[in-house]
Task: inverse folding
């Protein structure tokens, strides 16, 4: 029985890893008090790059409160900010695509998503991360960008 539980636990962990990176909330500050439902706030989430060990991205964004926000029906604002930093020894076990979506999170019930894209700047040996928001009909030009320099002794393998 324990063996089956271990296999089931490992399978769940693999499925979660295959679904992409998950946000880990670092903190939040309230910006508007709401009598009913949660307050409007700014949240800061941490995402570990699933293909680059030792890089963590911190994304701050607005989270709508109130009744709609509490029920998950509100559409969050498009503004977001990103800072990615080296949080451990950098390891890139496999070649990276020149550009790849690393994280995505729904910011409205159906149509809007917050996205983080990683780009490889091979000439400068750096990883560039950009966050933006898009919708099915129209996206937002508002974005934020950050870069993580990689030491010259560790060339970034590109596909």
Result:
């Amino acid at each position: 029985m324990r063996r089956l539980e271990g296999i089931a636990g490992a399978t769940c962990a693999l499925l979660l890893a295959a679904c992409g990176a998950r946000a880990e909330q670092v903190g939040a500050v309230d910006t508007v008090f709401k009598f009913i439902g949660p307050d409007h706030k700014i949240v800061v989430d941490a995402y570990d790059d699933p293909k680059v060990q030792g890089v963590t991205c911190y994304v701050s964004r607005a989270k709508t409160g109130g009744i709609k926000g509490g029920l998950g029906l509100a559409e969050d604002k498009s503004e977001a900010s990103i800072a990615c930093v080296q949080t451990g020894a950098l390891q890139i076990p496999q070649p990276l695509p020149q550009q790849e979506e690393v994280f995505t999170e729904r910011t409205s019930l159906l149509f809007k998503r917050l996205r983080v894209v990683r780009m490889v700047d091979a000439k400068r040996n750096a990883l560039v991360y950009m966050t933006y928001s898009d919708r099915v009909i129209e996206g937002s030009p508002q974005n934020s960008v950050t870069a993580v320099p990689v030491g010259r002794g560790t060339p970034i393998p590109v596909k």
